[in-house]
Design goal:
Helix content: 25-40%
Order of helices and strands: HHHHEEEEEHEEEHEEHHHH
Largest sheet: 3 strands, mixed
Strand content: 5-15%
Strand order of the largest sheet: 3-4-5
Distance between the termini: 69 Å
Number of strands: 10
Number of helices: 10
Shape: globular
């Protein structure tokens, strides 16, 4: 056999191996109420359920901040499993595709496809999806300043690359319906904000995800309390949520309560990935027991 033929065969084998490595297996674990109730009971055994304010927040910080830290590439793999518990799954007859938080598109959890998969370049909605830091990473000083928040699965969500790029570091808010500059395919809005306390441009999530995102913010403000040295933003001060933003998020939390999809996602992250939990999913009443995030 000639050296050329051997080389061609070797390249073919390596190409096949690499191609398989790009495909991420979508496996949905069916969790039940007994699973998350049992796990939560053990996990919060050290927490005083009657504690309030800084005392409760500090207890929770000490519990949830230590977690198994993922590398950024592993987040792609985690999405293929964790985000089968988003409310719009299955979003296609092909159950190996995962839903998006900022658009109505479904995604192939791989980076071997030119479109409809991991970003990639994008020019419009539906081109590709990326790893959205729901609390913009610039708000804690950039990726390398995250102190592990930058790869935290309670901070990261699969989002349409184009819409994510349009959001940038805009704070959440209620967009003036007479001043909308962009509306995504699942109803996310960008435009002038009419939320009390803020008059700039803001991003309004789809109603079905508002509570989920609010509880992510409460988790982040608690898990990374006093960890960051940056930054002052329109919505946050280091790990503190500013009053106008917190008031809005409390409304979103109340109007879009925890459902079983969110509980299952929490259980998946705890059981198979980070081994910590979002306490405001397991105990939504603790939001009211903490007066200042």
């Amino acid at each position: 056999m000639s050296r050329l033929l051997l080389l061609v065969l070797l390249i073919s084998v390596l190409s096949a191996v690499y191609s398989r490595s790009e495909e991420r297996e979508v496996v949905r674990t069916e969790f039940t109420k007994a699973d998350w109730v049992g796990s939560a009971s053990d996990y919060y055994a050290s927490i005083d359920p009657k504690a309030t304010d800084l005392e409760l927040k500090t207890q929770l910080h000490k519990l949830i901040n230590p977690h198994t830290v993922l590398d950024y590439d592993t987040v792609w793999t985690a999405f293929a499993v964790v985000d089968t518990h988003l409310p719009t799954y299955p979003c296609d007859k092909n159950t190996s595709m995962i839903p998006d938080i900022y658009s109505s598109y479904c995604w192939k959890p791989d980076h071997s496809s030119s479109t409809g998969a991991e970003c990639g370049n994008y020019k419009k909605e539906g081109d590709c999806y990326n790893r959205e830091h729901i609390w913009p990473k610039s708000w804690f000083g950039g990726f390398d300043a995250g102190k592990n928040c930058q790869t935290d699965l309670f901070e990261l969500w699969p989002s349409d690359g184009y819409v994510n790029g349009l959001r940038g570091d805009l704070p959440f808010g209620v967009v003036d319906r007479n001043a909308i500059t962009y509306k995504s395919t699942n109803g996310c809005l960008i435009g002038s904000c009419k939320t009390d306390g803020y008059t700039g441009k803001c991003f309004e999530a789809d109603d079905s995800m508002k509570g989920d995102f609010a509880r992510s913010y409460f988790y982040i403000a608690t898990a990374y309390m006093d960890v960051w040295s940056c930054c002052e933003t329109p919505a946050t001060s280091k790990s503190d949520i500013l009053p106008w933003q917190e008031k809005l998020l409390r409304t979103w939390h109340a109007n879009d309560p925890v459902d079983d999809n969110e509980r299952a996602r929490n259980e998946e992250i705890y059981t198979n990935w980070q081994h910590n939990r979002n306490p405001f999913i397991d105990h939504p009443e603790w939001v009211d027991q903490i007066s200042d995030f």
